[in-house]
């Protein structure tokens, strides 16, 4: 069983609000659609570089897109 | 399914068929007698050759089918594929170390060359099998 990450994200809701498909966003940030799906579902923690690329695609800060719980 | 996951499945399927196939052929050749009397080397070479060829053919055929459905994404890889491949590689290496230690132990006790060669062969085969399974689990269940 894979240990779930504590990092959550709001990529899916942001993407749906913006009317962008998974394929479009994946193409913009240079990953496969499967990788984007895995990130949205919390099954893959993106690298810092990829996280910045996703945030930049939505023109928001990285903190607006990824959340980490307080202690 | 992405390019590298398809290739992993091809490797897994080939290994899952070839390993039992090799064991069955060696046991048949022994015909109830001592395994050390079996002429194992040509059987092993055939198993290695068929395994490599089957993996390549399966990957190509699967790639053609995937390319017909999604021409752009058929051979695309990204950072997640590399992360998963590295994780699978670590699993393989750890098993190869165990196999290597087993071979040293067999040499130390003066085991027949049959057991030494087959311990290393099965080490390669099983590490490939388990490494592929680890990669598939990471693709399906996640890599955190």
Automatic annotation (TrEMBL), chain A:
<protein>
    <submittedName>
        <fullName>Helix-turn-helix transcriptional regulator</fullName>
    </submittedName>
</protein>
<dbReference type="Pfam" id="PF01381">
    <property type="entry name" value="HTH_3"/>
</dbReference>
<feature type="domain" description="HTH cro/C1-type">
    <location>
        <begin position="11"/>
        <end position="65"/>
    </location>
</feature>
<dbReference type="InterPro" id="IPR010982">
    <property type="entry name" value="Lambda_DNA-bd_dom_sf"/>
</dbReference>
<dbReference type="InterPro" id="IPR001387">
    <property type="entry name" value="Cro/C1-type_HTH"/>
</dbReference>
<keyword id="KW-0238">DNA-binding</keyword>
TrEMBL record, chain B:
<feature type="transmembrane region" description="Helical">
    <location>
        <begin position="95"/>
        <end position="115"/>
    </location>
</feature>
<protein>
    <recommendedName>
        <fullName>DUF2178 domain-containing protein</fullName>
    </recommendedName>
</protein>
<feature type="transmembrane region" description="Helical">
    <location>
        <begin position="12"/>
        <end position="31"/>
    </location>
</feature>
<keyword id="KW-1133">Transmembrane helix</keyword>
<feature type="transmembrane region" description="Helical">
    <location>
        <begin position="121"/>
        <end position="138"/>
    </location>
</feature>
<keyword id="KW-0472">Membrane</keyword>
<keyword id="KW-0812">Transmembrane</keyword>
<feature type="transmembrane region" description="Helical">
    <location>
        <begin position="43"/>
        <end position="65"/>
    </location>
</feature>
